[in-house]
Amino acid sequence: MKFEWNKELETGIPALDLQHHGIFDRIANFFQKCDESEAEKEIIVLFDFLDSYTKKHFIYEENLQSYNNYPGLAQQQEQHALFLAELAEFRRTLETAGPTRELSLSIKGKLIRWLNHHIKNMDKQFVDFLKAKQG
Ligand SMILES: [Fe+2]
Ligand SMILES: [Fe+2]
User: Fold this and answer.
1) Which ligand ends up closest to the CA of 126?
2) CB of 2 within 8 A of CB of 116?
């Protein structure tokens, strides 16, 4: 599966699209670095970025959902928390085993699957709810 931004990922809410796009661009850059065998230092930078940027994005999204009384909020919070827990697990592996190519590939696979699936399903369900609510 290619890891690049595409129209299917657009929700139609500019702030969400901008944040999702930002996450994709940064990760695409990381994969490019992996191909250039610079993964060891890049993986640390990626983790710092993911920690701060995705946490901010999740908080933004959850606040928007809460403000709009979205019934799927708890499910979103649960999925966001799972993603952050996975990242924390990757970080522990990174700290104990060091930045290996195997870890980079496993992170890459995980991020591609999770982001594609989450945005296209859960985030879009929220946007559909918002559009229906706003008429
Ligand atoms: Fe989300
Ligand atoms: Fe999102």
Assistant:
1) 1
2) no
